[in-house]
Structures are given as structure tokens and as C-alpha cells.
Amino acid sequence: MKTIVTARHVMGLRAAAFLTAGIARVPFWKFLLTDGVTAMLGVPFSFALAYFFTDHVKAIFANVHRIERWIGLLVMLAVAIAVFITVRKRDRHVVEEVDGPTGRSLRRLVRPSRHAPSRR
Q: What is the mean pLDDT of the chain?
């Protein structure tokens, strides 16, 4: 039921909620009841917000346009940092696989086998 309630209020997830409820074998009456109750609460709330804040929309958009470049820059910086950390962890993991956890090269740790073919 949490999925249906959440999907009802998140744009783009509503159609997927119908599919998910069907796959999860949610009874139709339960789905209909949950979807109806959330619609009866969510739709009036959305209209009330739109009614009371209509006059402030221009001011809100002006503020958003003023700071959207900074938000974009911060998002790009966060993505770059995340990529850097991920690549660094992956590289460190690869080095540990090759050198082992001690940091020594594997050549020093591997002893020659007694049954190795002789070189002539």
C-alpha cells in the first residue's frame, strides 16, 4: 500500500504503480480503496496550494532563475566528486587484488614449485 500512496504523489510513477500492484497481486478492491483515499486527500491539497500561492508564482520563478546556475554547478560538482571517489575505490580494490593486502608484489610471495619443469 505504501507504494501506491507514494506513487500517487510522485510524477511519473503513477502508471508504474498500477503495474507494480498487479505484479504484487494486490486485490483490486484494496488498490481501488487506497488509490481513491490518496486521491481524495492529494487533489484538494494540490488545488489549495495552487489557489493560495498563485500570486507568488512570479516571485518564486524569479528566485529560482537567480540561483539555478549555482544549483547546477553544485550538482555537477557533487557528481564529479562521486565519480572521483568511485574510481579511486575501484582502483584501490584492483591494486589490492594484484599486490595483496600487504602491498607487496606477488612475485616475492610466490615460491617456485618443486614440480616446475626444468629450463634447459
A: 80
